[in-house]
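With this grant's support, we have settled on a layout for protein records. An illustrative entry appears below exactly as we store it:
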Amino acid sequence: MTIHSYRKRDYLLEVNPKYTDPSYEDYLNVIDARWIDIDTGLFIDITAVRPHYEKPDVICSKDKHEENIQDLFPLRDSLFEGQQVKIPYNYAKLLTMEYGKASLTKTKFSG
């Protein structure tokens, strides 16, 4: 675990010691790292992607998500809450496949 400070806030980067293990066998252990805001407890899960062993031009993660490389790259420039970010090339297709059509139009979350 490593603590990082940014803009007077502390964050913890916690890396799973099994992050290099690409197998699907340990299905309860699919998060490779976690970026945690120490003050609030909010976190972002980080899952590594790797080339698929059987499918060319496909990358996959331990949670069995598979994506075509052409849908991800080249990354596009965008803005998120006023900050410059990179987003997947075919973001609309990826979002609707994962979350449905409302993910492109719904602007409020109630949950």
